[in-house]
Amino acid sequence: MNLIELALDFALGAVALALLPCAWRLLRGPEAVDRVLALDTLYINTVALVILLGLRWRSALLFEAALIVAMLGFVSTVALARYLSRGDVIE
Q1: pTM
Q2: 11 CB contacts (<8 Å, ≥6 apart)?
Q3: C-alpha distances in angstroms, 39 versus 4, 5, 57, 58?
Q4: Distance separating alpha carbons of residues 61 and 73, to the nearest angstrom
Q5: Which of 22, 32, 84, 90 gives the lowest tally of CB atoms within 10 Å of its CB?
Q6: From CA 85, how far away is CA 66, in angstroms rounded?
Q7: What's the CA gap between 75 and 49, in Å, rounded?
Q8: Exposure string (b/e) for 43-66, b if CB count within 10 Å is 16 or more?
Q9: Averaged pLDDT, 64-82
Q10: pLDDT digits (tens, 9 = 90+) for 4-32
Q11: Alpha-carbon gap, residue 50 to 64, rounded angstroms
């Protein structure tokens, strides 16, 4: 096992471990804003995990999947923020 594979394995473990506190805050957040921020961080960590898996498995398809997850996460965060601040998404 070379150094790059070892670094990728370590990064995969670290990002997977970082998903746990995000999921905890999403489930137990005292307010809706805390849950939205946890969801935002959760999808960012998911994008990082998919990219690292794409590097590890040498698959270009996973990079496209990461791009789709990032776009959907951004749109959902904006929609949830507008809903919490205004009460509706589209005016």
Answers
A1: 0.87
A2: 52
A3: 30, 29, 26, 28
A4: 18
A5: 90
A6: 28
A7: 20
A8: bbbbbbbbbbbbbeeeeeebeebb
A9: 93
A10: 999 999 999 999 999 999 999 999 989 98
A11: 10
Distance CA 82, CA 11 (A): 34
For the chain, give every domain's residue range: 3-86
Q: Tokens representing 25?
A: 């805050």
Q: Cβ distance 51 to 57 under 8 Å?
A: no
Q: Is 2 left (phi over 0), alpha (psi -120 to 50) or beta?
A: beta
* Spatial separation of the C-alpha atoms in residues 71 and 1, rounded to whole Å: 34
Distances (CA, A) of 11 to 34, 39, 90: 26, 21, 39
Q: pLDDT tens, 29-54?
A: 899 889 999 999 999 999 999 999 99
Enter the tokens of residue 13: 């473990």
SS3 50: helix
